[in-house]
Amino acid sequence: MSKLYQAVAGMNGLEQLASGDSVIHRVHPMAKLLTTLVYVITVVSLPATNVSGLVPFIFYPVILMALSGTPYRPLLGRAAVALPFSLAGGISSLLLMRTTAFYIGSIAVSHGVLACASILLRTLLTVMAVLILIATTSLVEIGEQLVRLRLPKLFCLVLIMTYRYISVLLNEAVSMYTAYTLRTGNQKGIKMRDMGSFLGQLLLRSTDRAEQVYYAMKCRGFHGMYPGKTKSAPVIEDALYTGALIAIMLFLRFFNLSRFLGSLAM
After folding, report:
1. Residue numbers of the domain that contains 128
2. Strand, helix or coil at 22?
């Protein structure tokens, strides 16, 4: 259950990072959202076995984390959570794509190995890009920009509330687990025979807490959407930021820089 405590602290920490004041934090939310979308699309659209084409895209998370002062360790830890899910696709590539791509000495490297490495790398890059967006922009501002992009308001509201109040559910689970351990002599873990009642009580407590949160929001004037921190329209600096990054991403997408440098070295 220590991982549950870490999850609660981690979510709160990510919210605190979004309230920072750096060059990236001051960029308009729409500019950051558009560059993140283009980045994800360009990385995902690369050919399945093109590992060398993915390597230059590391510039985006490295530069943005350096300029925004975002710590590497917590974001890498969260991004690593997605790797086991993509590893399943990588393993299937190893089994299905057995033709040899090239040799390293006497060792044959198959297309499946390249596809597996490509899946893991693009998963890491895309998840990192999304985490950097969340760490430099509040979720309310992201929701506002999604509404401006004509996404349904209900979808944006569900997205914001799910992210914001999942920590409330985790806190309920932590308090219930603490009470459980006090009644069972600090036993590690929850017994299987008690798991059903534990989850049932968690569902009832979370439902009650959801009603309390809703009534509190109604008392404060909530009427369907969070009153976000409305910013002014994007300025020339935001346009330059968006244009420069998108131009670099498109260049890297359609021009394999790694192969070009390799040919020069030869």
Report:
1. 1-138+229-245
2. coil
